[in-house]
Amino acid sequence: MKVHEYQAKELLAAYGAPVPKHVVCKTADEVGAAFDQLSNGGGAVVKAQVHAGGRGAGQLMGYADKLGGVKFVPTKEKAKTVAEAMLKHSLKTKQTGPEGQKISTLIVQADAEPAKEFYVGMVLDRSVGLPMVMASAEGGMDIEEVAAKHPEKILKVHVAPETGLLPFQAQKLAFDLGFSNEQIGSVVKILMALSKVYFEKDASIVEVNPLAVTKKGDVVVLDAKIDFDDNATFRHKDVQALRDMGEENPTEIRAAKASLNYIQLDGNIGCLVNGAGLAMATMDIVNHHGGSPANFLDVGGGVTAENAVEAFRIILSDDKVKAIFVNVFGGIASCARIAEALVKAGREVGFKIPVVVRLEGNEVEKAREILNSVKDELPAIRVAKGLTEAAKLVVELAK
Amino acid sequence: MSILVDKNTRVITQGITGSEGSKHTNLSLEYGSNFVGGVTPKKGGMMWKATSGKELPVFNTVAEAVAKTGADASMLFVPPGLAADAIMEAADAGIKLIVAITEGIPVLDMAKAKRFLQTKPDCRLIGPNCPGIITPGQCKIGIMPGYIHKPTEPGKTGIGIISRSGTLTYEAVFQLSSMGYSQSTCVGIGGDPIIGTNQIDLLKMFEEDPGTEAILMIGEIGGDAEERAAAYVAQHVKKPVAAFIAGKTAPPGRRMGHAGAIASTSAGTAKEKVAALEKAGIAVAATPADLGDAVQRAIAAKKK
Lengths: 399, 304
Prior knowledge:
The structure holds two protein chains of two kinds.
Chain A: H1 5-14, E1 22-25, H2 28-38, E2 44-48, E3 59-60, E4 70-73, H3 76-88, E5 91-92, E6 106-110, E7 114-125, E8 130-136, H4 143-149, E9 154-158, H5 167-176, H6 181-200, E10 203-214, E11 219-221, E12 224-228, H7 237-240, H8 250-257, E13 261-264, E14 269-273, H9 276-288, E15 295-298, H10 305-316, E16 323-330, H11 335-349, E17 355-361, H12 364-373, E18 381-383, H13 387-398
Parallel strand pairs in A: 14-16, 16-17, 17-18
Antiparallel strand pairs in A: 1-6, 2-4, 2-6, 3-5, 7-8, 7-10, 8-9, 10-11, 10-12, 13-15
Helix pairs in contact in A: 1-6, 2-3, 5-6, 10-11, 11-12
Chain B: E1 11-14, H1 19-31, E2 35-39, E3 47-49, E4 55-59, H2 62-69, E5 73-76, H3 80-92, E6 97-100, H4 107-117, E7 124-126, E8 132-135, E9 139-142, E10 158-163, H5 167-178, E11 183-188, H6 199-208, E12 212-220, H7 225-236, E13 241-246, H8 270-279, E14 283-284, H9 291-303
Helix pairs in contact in B: 3-4, 5-9, 6-7, 7-8
C-alpha cells in the first residue's frame, strides 16, 4: 500500500526525524494562506500529492506552459496560479502511465534551500531475507539507477529484525556518508526513525530522498516515500486510515472486492486465468503471438460461477477489449465445473465479443462436451485445444 | 530416487481441523502420502476423520505430535497472521521439513522466522505461499493435483522441478507427463519475497540425486534469485537445465499476484533473467506452451 509524501513525512516526524513544516491544502485559496504562513520572505514550494514518483520532471497534461508536480513559487499570487493549474490538470510522470494522475491534494512548504542532497532508505534484501538500510551521497536521483551504474556509491547495512537498526550502525553510516560532527545527531535521528517506522508499522519501503543539507547546514527530510506490506495492514488500523482510494484504479478496487487479482493494462485482449504465474505467462504468450493483453487477472485456485461472472463483467467494462482469452488449468477443481461457470457467465453477461477458451486438466473432456452443447446458444465461445492454438486464435480475433 | 520426501516421510498437518487443512490432508492421503496426525491448538485429544474413514490424532502442540507420532515433516495451513509462529514452533519441535502453503504472511514475520530457522540447521522450510512438494507415486505434501504427475520407476530417472508458481507448475508437469517424461520430485518454492528454500538449494540436491535426469526451473519477475541460480548452474550443474520466466509483459512497479512478483524498470525484469539463464547455457522456454519442449532441448543438447 502506497501513501502520500505528506503522510510519510508526518509519520517520520512522529518518530523524531527533522521534517520541514508543511501545510496540506485542497484549494488554491488554502495554498495562498499557507504561503503567507510559511514563506518567511523567501518563497515556498508547492508539491502535488500523488502516488507516483518523478513529479518534478513530470508535466501537467493539457497545460500550455512547462509545469510538473513540484514548483518553487516566489509570491503568493504565483502560488495560487500554480495551485490552480495543478488541481485542474492531471499530472503525467514516468511512473503514472499515459493517462496521468488527477491531483486533489497539495502541500506547501517553506523553501529549504538545499545545498547538498543524500539518499537513505530501508528495504528488504531478498537475497538474504533481511531488511537493509541503503545510503548514498548521490541523493535526489533514482536509487536503482545509482545502484546499476555506480554500486560502489551505495552503503548497505543489514538490520536484524529482532533489534531494529542499532544506534551505532546509524552513527557509522552517518560518518561514512561524510557528515560533520554537528550534523551527525540529525542524521542518526532520521535513520532511527526510518527503522522504527519500517519495523513498527510493517513498511516494505521507507525512503528519504532527498535527505537535504540546507544552506544553513541543517539536515532535513525533504521528500519521503513509504510503502506498507499489504499482508500486514490488517494489524495496523492507523496505516489503513492513510489509504487514499482516489489514487487507485476503480476497476482494480472493484476486482479486489470480489477476491480477484486484477491489473489493468492498455491492450485489447482480456485475460481470465487461474493462478498468478499462469496469468502472467498467459499475457506473455498473447504478446509472443503479436497480441496485446488488456489486463492481468488471476481468479484464484477454484473458479466459481460467481467470481467468473464478476470477472467477465470487469473485463468487459474496459471498452478497449476486443476478445477474451480464458486460460484455466483445472488442477483440483474440475474443468467441467469451470465450463459450467463459463456458460452461466455467458448467459448472465452476454458475450458480444469472441471468448476463446482453453481448458486443460481434470475432467477436460466433460468440459468440452458442456461447451460444445451450447455452441448455438453462445456462439461467441470458441474452444481451442492447445495453449499455442488458443493464443494465436485470440490474437487473430482481436484484430 | 527423489529429494526431500518419499514413501517413508511421516507427515502431520498444522491446521488440520480447518477447511483447507482438512481438504488437502484428505487429498494427500488419497494420493498415498503417509500422514500420521495433525495439530490444532485447543483441539488436542480429538480424532480427525478422513473421508476414507481413516482417523488421525489431533494434538495441541507440534512438540506433542512429534513425540507421539515420530513425524518428520509438516504441511502447514495456519492462517497468515499466525503462520510464521507456527513455522518456528515446528522447527523448534524437531520437524525436519516444513511445507508452508499459507499465502499472505507479513514479510517481517517471515524475516524473523528465517532468522529463527538459521538456529535450526537440521530443519528445512519450503514456501511459504507455495503449492508444496511431491515425489510422484510416493509422497504428496501440498495442494497440487496428484494425477497429472508421472512417477519415476525404480532404477529410472525423471525430471526435477523447481517453481515459484502453482498453476504454471501444473502446466509444466502436464506437458512433461504427456510427453512421457516422469518427474523425480517437484518443489513449489513459493511466490513470497522471503522463502525458506531457494533455487540454488534445490539445484544442488537435484544435481546430486541419481533419480533426476534433468531440471526445469520456473521463475518469474522480481528479485534476482534466477540470476544467482543461473550463475550457480554455469559453475556447478552438469545435468541438463531448462527454464521459463513469467512476466515479460508485466508493467513495472506492479505486484503481479504473488507478493514477490514485482519488477522495477531496471531490476528484477524478465529480460534480465532470461539473458542470465541463456548465458549460463540453460534452455529457456519462449512461452508457457514450450515448457516440455525446452526440457527436451536441454536433454538433447547435453547428449551431443
